[in-house]
Each structure stands twice: as structure tokens, then as C-alpha cells.
Amino acid sequence: MKKQTLLRKLAKLETINDQLSAEIDYLERLTRALGFAQGLKTLKAAALEMLEADKKKNVRKEDEANPPLSS
To answer: What is the model's pLDDT at position 71?
Structure first.
């Protein structure tokens, strides 16, 4: 590849990186303002916890709907 092409690609990637970094910083401040003590880290943990609880709830509903067959 020509040097000029590589420089253009590098500039594009740097722009994308700057945009993503700014968005993550904004989300970090937003989550802290909403009460997540460690920002995105605690938001992620809460979301995973909610998904796990929902998964367990759905398994229980399936078990109730399909009781084991007695012999």
C-alpha cells in the first residue's frame, strides 16, 4: 500500500477512536449520575445480574408448565 493510503486510513481510525472514546466518557458520566457508583462497570454487573435472574425465572416457569411425568 502506498504511504498516502495508509496515512488516510490511519487518520480515519484515529477519528473513529476519538468518537468512541468521547461516547464512552459520556456514558461513564451518565451512569455515575444515575447512581451507578463505578459507572459502566456497575451498570454492566447490574445488567448481567438482571439477565441471570430473568433466565432463572424463565426456567422455573418452564418447570411449572411441564411437570415431570410420574411412572
So the answer is: 54
